Amino acid sequence: MLCFVTNSIIPRKKKKSIAFPHIFAKYTIFFSDTAHIVLNLLRLIALE
User: Which residues does 7 contact at the CB level (< 8 Å), separation at least 6?
Assistant: First the structure.
């Protein structure tokens, strides 16, 4: 869905849209992992 939205918003950059989903997926995984770590650290601080 996100890829479709970005392609509809930016129709001029169709050449980059092929490689974009892979990069986007990598970044979403990375940010979800960092968010997990941050939430765990906040829980540890809250418990202390």
Answer: 14, 17
Q: Which two tokens mark 37?
A: 């770590």
Question: What's the token pair of residue 40?
Answer: 């765990």
**DSSP reduced 3-state for 14:** coil
Distance CA 48, CA 30 (A): 27
Please report the DSSP string for 3-43 in residue order.
HHHHHHH--S-TTTTTTHHHHHHHHHHHHHHHHHHHHHHHH
Name the one residue in this structure whose structure tokens are 């809250």.
Answer: 46
pLDDT, tens digit, 9 for 90 and up, residues 2-15: 555 455 555 555 55
